[in-house]
Amino acid sequence: RLESMNKKLLSLPFIFWSAMFVIVPLCMVFYYGLTDKSGAFTLDNILAIATAEHSKALWEALKLSVISTVICLLLAYPLAMILCNMNVNQNSFLVLIFILPMWMNFLLRTLAWQTLLEKTGVINSTLHLPALNIINTPSAIVLGMVYNFLPFMVLPLYNVLVKIDKSVINAAYDLGANGVQTFVRIIFPLSLPGMFSGITMVFVPSLTTFVISKILGGSKILLIGNVIEQEFTQTGNWNLGSGLSIVLMLFIIFNMVISVITDKEGEANTL
Fold this sequence. Notes:
The protein has helices at residues 2-33, 44-47, 52-84, 88-99, 106-117, 122-127, 138-161, 166-174, 179-208, 211-216, 224-235, 238-262. The protein is mainly alpha-helical.
């Protein structure tokens, strides 16, 4: 009983932190989202997502986040397989290279890409290429998303692939399966938990981001994250901003439910 009581006491700081910085803010979002400025209950803030401006911003965010997630998956899968087939020393070094950028401030990394992609930026100046009009376009936003969130796709995939028993793969070869058959019937199905976990970890921040689109899109391309940010910081309409946030939460919750269903044992949990 004493040990159980000590564990409960040790959990108090975490419970306090969760209550103050997770539960209370969420309650505030739902309160403002479901009320008008007079405090009366309303669904107008949520239904505002159906307006032309907001639905366009949501669709644009969904489109770019899906594109970014697919690109991250296509880049991360072969990379994770290469890491699994390398020796321990090389493996650890390359994993460190992927984790290293995450130690740098997210905003600084995005600003660095702004410097690289500008018409008079490093890429055009150094390579003497014709002026690349990438900055302030959807392509620049996708590039920023892929760069910032690629490690979140690589690590879950690597964590699952490295746990696959090599004897299972060797058994498939012994039974006459070729490389393609082994991948399709053994490696790919066993890597699905990591793949779905990676998709969630990339799709969610891509859908909700406003910093990348603001810096690399030059505020010319409004995603739903930018609209919500403007409602809170510029317009001062917390009710509408919270209502739109609730709509965004529904997409995030759906994505997370799919991830939980496909990774029941938490095999892809790396962070």
